[in-house]
Amino acid sequence: MKNATLTFGEDGNLVLADAGGRIAWQTNTANKGVVGFEVLPNGNMVLHDSKGNFIWQSFDSPTDTILVGQSLRVGGATRLVSRASQNENSDGAYSLVMESKRLVMYYKSPNSLKQYLYYTFAPSQDRLQNATLNYNPDPYDDSASEVTFDLSSGGWSVHARPKFNATLSFLRIGIDGNLRIYSYNNKVDYMAWDVAFTLFSRDGFPESECQLPERCGKFGLCEDSQCVACPLPGGLLGWSKNCEPVKPPACGSKNFYYYKLEGVDHSMSKYAGGSGPVKEDECGRKCSSDCKCMGYFYNKETSKCSIAYDLQTLTKVSNSTHVGYIKAPKK
């Protein structure tokens, strides 16, 4: 907000107001014994009482970012939510969520009523109480350090190993749905923030960029983290950012057909799995009876069906039993 003000009042309330004085955000800590406001070395912004006890702390309210020492936890915040855009500081389409026994990532596509799973970390045997971003110096290499997102059940979900002291690090879910660890290298004076970990990477480890729902924009076929084709009814054309699915028929119209793509997955297919088991023609009927359905994806080995309300990125896979059917109007 332009010309906004952040005010720490005598009553102990911290208030963010716009240029007209309207309250945009506040800590709601008025008359609760707050005597001090401080930003700690780890980045935690706290309001404390006369004994130093925290009455309010920013670590309890993560947005799209977790700092070293900060947690997702039962009884508190259990998710990170991406920004809508670089210029719009509102909730975006992607989230990292701590569920009872696993960490998962969800995407809410523009035309879908529900979010869907596009990545899941290995499930835990025990219930998760928290997931905390930690920093530790490397015990075997003085020039390196380790940054991990540790689970209360044991082990870690992400792991970075910068070749410098990475005390200043943070984990963020980006507007593109990717999960990254950034670490600050105090030995350089230019471009000091280094990307120490990327979940969806060009080399496919831990996961390929093709699994990102919007990797290929509105429509595209992805292989080896690259958008390689625009899969239209006439065949696979060269991909560009202008690639879009054909305009679907109007709701209520029966004047449409499906064209088939073999060896493809939708971004919801790999981890969400789909519904079923159902027969392939039943999966097709589900899409045909829903005028908002843009296509359906079927795994012949598992008999699982996925209904897509937005097509976006399709991934080329070697298994021809993974098929997609894209809705198109009859001429």
UniProtKB/TrEMBL annotation:
Signal sequence segment: none
Gene3D superfamilies the record matches: Bulb-type lectin domain
Species per Swiss-Prot/TrEMBL record: Salix purpurea (Purple osier willow)
Protein name, UniProt field: Bulb-type lectin domain-containing protein
Keywords: Disulfide bond, Glycoprotein, Signal
Keyword flag Signal: yes
Pfam families, per database record: B_lectin
Keyword Glycoprotein included in the entry's annotation: yes
Domain Bulb-type lectin: 1-60
